[in-house]
Amino acid sequence: MPKLWIYGGASNPHDTAVATDAGWDVVGYIDDSPPADTVNGRPVVLPLDFTALDLPVANTVCGSTVARDDVYRTMLDLGMWGTDLIHPSAITHGYQIGGHVCGYIQEFVTIQAGCMVDSNVSIHANTVVGHETKIGEGVFIAHGVMISGRCTIGAGAYIGAGAVLLPGVKIGAFATVGAGAVVTKDVAPAATVKGNPAK
Ligand SMILES: CC(C)(COP(=O)(O)OP(=O)(O)OC[C@H]1O[C@@H](n2cnc3c(N)ncnc32)[C@H](O)[C@@H]1OP(=O)(O)O)[C@@H](O)C(=O)NCCC(=O)NCCS
């Protein structure tokens, strides 16, 4: 069983379950503010104490894409390398992934043919990513999002749970799409939209 550290997730047993289901042996957690010395019987270490650079790390930090991005940069600065944590129930049709990958794809996600997914992207359970969609670095996509074909999601964007993106829509970098929004038009960088139609 290949070994894996999880960055964040020390208080979230779900991430450990996803990793275990996907065939990884989770050896411990990396956390800026460890809740305890051990969690789930595994050690929790501070980033700067982290020495096992020969093992891959999955970045499961949630909350905001800014927090995820901070963690990702810290990992790169410390020389860590990441892995793509893909739950076995996810269906992926030959999509391409970026260089330093340390994101995760949860249960029952479908990624259709011809998509490009950049580094440090997290896609939560039951989301569908339509064909030929491009997802930029550090994007956070919550549960149950329906992304139509040929959409573009800029780096650092946050897509709330259950949102729907109509075909070909472009979401600007670091934009936020509210939970349940129906996005019918392009969204400007750093803008927040919500509702149906999303504004
Ligand atoms: C859109 C969002 C980012 C707005 O956050 P915010 O700026 O803090 O918004 P507020 O809570 O201050 O609400 C502002 C107004 O927008 C409304 N609103 C908030 N979220 C909304 C949503 N998703 N759809 C429609 N209206 C929404 C509020 O009811 C409020 O309306 P009011 O001014 O008439 O009272 C946030 O509500 C959201 O949807 N986040 C996504 C959460 C999610 O999917 N999490 C998944 C975690 S895995």
Oligomeric assembly: single chain
What is the CA-based Rg, rounded?
Answer: 16 Å
Widest sheet, order of strands? 6-9-12-15-18-21-23
Order of helices and strands: EHEEEEHEEEEEEEEEEEEEEEEEE
What fraction of the residues are assigned to beta strands by DSSP?
A: 25-35%
What is the name of the CATH superfamily of the largest domain?
A: Hexapeptide repeat proteins
The level of helicity is 10-25%
Distance between the termini: 47 Å
CATH class of the largest domain: Mainly Beta
Shape: globular
Helix/strand/pairing category: mainly beta
CATH fold title of the largest domain:
UDP N-Acetylglucosamine Acyltransferase, domain 1
Task: Return the average pLDDT rounded to an integer.
Answer: 89
Low-pLDDT parts are none
The biggest sheet amounts to: 7 strands, parallel
What is the helix tally?
Answer: 2
CATH architectural group of the largest domain: 3 Solenoid
Which molecules other than protein and nucleic acid are bound?
coenzyme A
Number of domains: 2
